[in-house]
Amino acid sequence: MQNLQGKAALITGGTKGIGYGIAKALLEQGVSVAITSRSQEAANETAKKLNGQGNDSAHAIGLEADVRSYESQQKAVTAAKSEFGKIDVLIANAGLGHFGSIEELTVAQWNEVIETNLTGAFYSLKASVAALKETKGYYITISSLAGTNFFEGGTAYNASKFGVTGFTQAAMLDLRKHEVKVSTIMPGSVSTHFNGNEPSEKGAWKIQIEDIGKLVVDLLQMHPRTLPSKIEVRPTVPPSAKK
Length: 243
Hints:
seven-stranded parallel beta sheet, SDR, NADP-dependent 3-hydroxy acid dehydrogenase YdfG, globular, alpha/beta
């Protein structure tokens, strides 16, 4: 099992949901984290909250960054590296969804989903690849089961997540010769505020954000010789499976 103490991670979209769950799990393992948001205030507030949970051997910082801008991602990588001296892990988590019939979906909505979910994953890796090669680090994208299972009303979201899954797998082949690990995690229903949902006891059957955090920790602790490159994760017993 790999010791994560003293490592450093950059997480895009880390102020809530899956990104927050990953940040918290990494801090508990002694990994310092930089979390990004389009709002500096939100990033600072979340970093303060994370730092108030007894993470004595590691710390969190908040950065304002927009994954839709390559320059913004370059600045985030530079800031994280300046703070921690290195980047061992990059989590491309930032994402959003617009859903509806192709007849209803607007051009602006399509562009926002593709630019955030897919182009954002590319920008995040492109900006950090040199730093990850230096540390023989780990790049992880948060895709979705929607990246392999299409559904009605999902043209933009499906396209973005199918793209993220394929992009990540190809990047894995590009970077393995540098001993940089690359994986994509493809969750099903997760209890977050995504798409207007409200986490509650009714969603206890869903994957919880701490479950994804634990999964990321497990990946990072795995022996360097072994790479789970694509991980599908789903609720054990969704309502549709109950008799």
